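Key idea: predict the complex, not the pieces.
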Amino acid sequence: MPPKISNKLHIDWPLLTGIILVCLWGLVIIYSASDKNLDMMARQLMRISLGFGIMLFIAQISPEHLYRISLNLFGGAIFMLLIVLALGVIGKGAQRWIDLGIMRFQPSELAKIAVPMMIAQYLSEQQLPPSNTLIFKALAMILIPVLLIAKQPDLGTALLVGSSGIFVLFLAGISWQMISIFAGSLIALAPIVWTMLHKYQKKRVLMLLFPESDPLGAGYHIIQSKIAIGSGGLHGKGWLHGTQSHLDFLPERHTDFIFAVLAEEFGLIGVIVLIGLYSFIIFRGLYIANQAQDTYGRLLSGSLTLVFFVYIFVNIGMVSGMLPVVGVPLPLISYGGTSLVTIMAAFGIIMSIHTHRKLLIA
Amino acid sequence: MIGEVFKDYRQERKLFTNRTILSGMIIILCFLGILIRLIWLQVQSYDHFQTLSQGNRIRLEPIPPIRGLIYETHSIVLAKNLPAYALELIPEKITNFNNTIAKLRKLISISDNDIKRFKKLRRHKRRFDSVPIRTQLTEEEIASFAVNSYQFREASIQVKFIRHYPVSKLTAHVLGYVGRINRRDLKRIDSSQYSGTSHIGKIGLEKTYEHLLHGQVGTKHVEINARGRVLRTLESHPALPGHDLFLYLDLGLQEEASRALGQENGALVAIDPRTGGILAFVSHPTYDTNLFVTGISHKSYNKLLHSPDRPLYNRALRGQYPPGSTIKPFVALAGLETEAIQAKDQIFCPGYYQLPGHKHKFRGWKRHGHGMINLNGAIAQSCDIYFYVLARNLGVDTLHAFLSKFGFGRKTNIDLVGELGGLLPSKAWKLKRRKAPWYPGETLILGIGQGYMLATPLQLASATATLATKGRFITPRIVRAYRGPTTNGTIKEFPKKTIQIAKQTTQHWSEVITAMRQVVESSQGTAKSIFTNAYSIAGKTGTAQVFTVRQNETYDESKISKKMRDHALFVAFAPIENPRIAVAILVENGGHGGAVAAPIARRVMDHHLLRDESSKTQDILLQDTAD
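Result:
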């Protein structure tokens, strides 16, 4: 059987097609959300190209190599998170990035990749399902970067990084007993944490739950985005014709709240098409994970795919008023380079895992 | 990867596949949840959010209507709307405020006060709202800015219409004025109708006819962005302009009356007896109403308010004075109509009158009396004794009933707000208001228009007009007609309200009018100085006491201060055969009616009856352009 071009380039065509389609649609929406700003569209196109470059580059790296650098990458990520924290303390202010001169580097983005790599590597050394001690050690490993990121403070990223590690544990087959113990203790802890919160903190949480109680303050974002989505109706107001977005009622409309622009201009039909595209990418990712030849590949590609889903769910949930507002972009569509590059790197890893399979019959 | 321990790969793989399938199912459930939420938002609640979205972007802006104009009888404009040019700055476009001001000052004078006011106004506006820095630019300033306007991105000239009264001092007590809407006004108006309007009628015709003059507000649907900036107009319903008013008032006559009154404080009302239309309506002193439109300064306002001459006081409408002898023709008519006397009946006048059993002497103005005197002589020479006797014969209640037919004691219901109704006393009134019985002596002095009785110059003029038409009481009006959107551009007259006073015989009225003619034509008439061959005049002089002369004292004009001097009154109408004008004049502290007030009436009547129409109009037009 002659090797296919796709295998030579280490590209998974179905995944690539899905990603390209979503990215192109993202450009179309950014053009509208930025009020026909071609500069912004060009900048985003550059980032997407950069993302594809990184994805293709990583896809060339074999899973064995990834396995070997997992620990170093994880250690590096922790180290840089500490540097960022230290810089923040010195600079007397919150800081998330390290200035590299040409660009700013966010260690928390590295952690999104490094944490699942580390946990997958750690767990795959042992017989699965993992033992309790293994689980606790893994949890501790997850908690270190999560706490460092939460301290920045960047709750959205902390949530994503944490879930990427948890997903590895889940896919590794952690027992339902353990899952219910963790879930139970979380629920039990919630009221205790609640009573420990300051009055203003409680108010802020309540605001997230009931945005309508402060229509001009914190609730403004969510109220306006609900109006945008709802007024889009079944067919939408048409591309470039969203009044909420074009008349500036919708805040953050080309970044975190871009979904509202899409829903306003393309309606429910557009939303269904988008979720269809996302589902295609996700299920292709899960298929790849299931086809992976070793535990490390399975756990890593599965976890990365699930994190991609979490992005989508949290973002749409937040914009449509189901979840509290945490800063999570809509993957592949929101304007901005940081998370885009990370997501593309993750897809690079997934492609690598899929295209480096040995042509053996197991 | 190299497993250091023995691993069951098959079992691991199975476990992973299970977990992957489970994940896939959870993902499908989550996406279904999202879809249900979005169906709820976009399909179920679509109408709700659609409405909210429309409300977000569309704002209703008012278009203020243009206030109606007011014309006098020859169609000369008395109240108009002048474009006022203001220089306005848009704060968000200013790069350097001091620079802009320095550059503007080369073209237009801007005081430090202007800057202060600008900074104050700016605080209440949005950054993209235009804020005035200089109002009422002169033509030269407009021109010099226009030439250099390309240098100023941040400045522009804005036009607003402000009310202007070209002959404000002449018309102050008729037209009144408009002023800024205040909180009290807001309570009584439909504020949506005034959403684009800054001014409202405060007094005078401007207030009475506010409902016609104001017009209907228009609306403009504009698309706005989240910061309220107007992006474009979607649709607009133009405002309906206010109605124009056409007055009976003759500006030429008004001016002549004002000139004739000269420096005196007083009032003059001239009515066309045929229509009830007010030809002239003067109250002296007067003031400049234009000051109130743009907002009068505290200093100027206090000066007007506290001036001893009380320029803001509308004497013609609200001044209540004892009518004095001008009441006598009406009392005489009461005597004739109730058949208490006949015109030819004579009485003896010794110069005083005593009630039976009383020592008090009610004196007449002529110390030694008029001797034997009938109705003609009593009116021509204004014999008080004759009317003491007559009043006593009639009694207070008969007098009250008869005089009230002429409008005394109640408002005439002229179309001017703030009218006062004077006072026509009666037994019932005294018991109720003064808690005292009526004394016979009070009936006597009522017969000569003194005591409790009070009348406004307007009431006197209206009563005289009623006398001139032999009993046709027409509610006096200043506004003859109106024109506007509700009349399709045609001039529509207001209906006249006429009441015919029931008469015994027209003969009695003629007898009184003949007697009034003697006031001017008889050699002993109190107003003989104003006799003219050109037309016939029926008049009656009056002198209202301000200062009570004690018994056995004589009134010496030279010895008392001007403030304490009698008010001079005169009522008249002309020509007798076909009355075209009835006037009532009051000169405060003027002294004798015949000497002071009657000549004023003559000038006014001359102007109205003798000058031909064309020359009148021309004169005023020349004057108007010079103004």
